[in-house]
Write a structure and sequence with these properties.
It is built from eleven helices and four strands, in the order E-H-H-H-H-H-H-E-H-E-H-H-H-H-E. With about 240 residues, the chain is an alpha/beta fold. The longest helix has 18 residues, at about 30-45. The two termini are about 30 Å apart.
Length: about 240
């Protein structure tokens, strides 16, 4: 009986949080910036269920700040290759599984990181699903880049959001957190979205939860098997 193996990346194969690492490396106070935007992502996707917004869209929200900081596709590739942290045994596991059945990797990470991972593991990049990104094709004016750096500094200084258990609306949050969310709404959906830099929000499609499900369906169709014949490797 034909089987297919599909693995997540972060957790089963590697320890990296590549988007966080890139933001922390390239953007001043980027670790704090990423942490707050990631929490904001949770608010929009899980609590407010913002129309058109998907879990994992943190990866497009941070892009204007990466670009404004001078990050290039080459820079992302080099950082990814230099900082790979593999889970013990993952290399041999993938090698053995790949020799026995069609195998795929599904990841939210940018393609720069997944390509570096594939090069290290000898895994076919064409058998991966990840967030496709050509950062070099976007050109921001000096004025926009300066404004984006100001936004990045402002966001990094905001208080961290705490999501209350069972929160279902913004009113369930503290007054401080409500103000932070509204400030972020203004920055991302009123300010940046209207700038030239806002194009990345419309073009880049992170492979989040829903997209990962679609990726699995696509792999099933490509290999002409039933969903019940898929082995998956993921962490909780």
């Amino acid at each position: 009986m034909k089987r297919v193996f599909i693995s997540d990346c972060e957790g089963p194969i590697s320890k990296n949080d590549n988007a966080f690492e890139a933001t922390a490396h390239f953007v001043p106070n980027g670790d704090r910036l990423f942490a707050l935007i990631s929490k904001y992502d949770d608010v929009l996707a899980a609590v407010l269920k913002k129309p058109g917004y998907n879990a994992g869209d943190t990866l497009k929200l941070i892009l204007p700040f990466l670009k404004a900081s001078g990050v290039t596709d080459r820079g992302l590739r080099e950082l990814s290759a230099e900082n790979l942290l593999l889970i013990a045994g993952s290399r041999e596991t993938l090698k053995q599984v790949k020799s026995r059945m069609d195998s795929f990797i599904v990841s939210t990470s940018y393609e720069h990181y997944i390509k570096a991972l594939c090069d290290e593991l000898g895994f076919p990049f064409e058998n991966t699903y990840c967030t496709r990104l050509n950062l070099d094709k976007y050109q921001f004016s000096d004025r926009e880049s300066s404004r984006l750096k100001e936004f990045a500094t402002e966001i990094a200084q905001m208080p961290m959001i705490t999501i209350p258990p069972a929160a279902k609306s913004l009113e369930d949050f503290s007054k401080q957190d409500q103000e932070t969310v509204m400030q972020l709404d203004s920055i991302f959906w009123e300010e940046i979205s209207r700038m030239g830099a806002g194009i990345v929000f419309r073009v880049v499609k992170p492979v989040g939860g829903r997209e990962k499900a679609e990726a699995i369906k696509d792999a099933v169709q490509k290999t002409d098997i039933e969903l019940s014949d898929v082995y998956t490797w993921a962490t909780a």
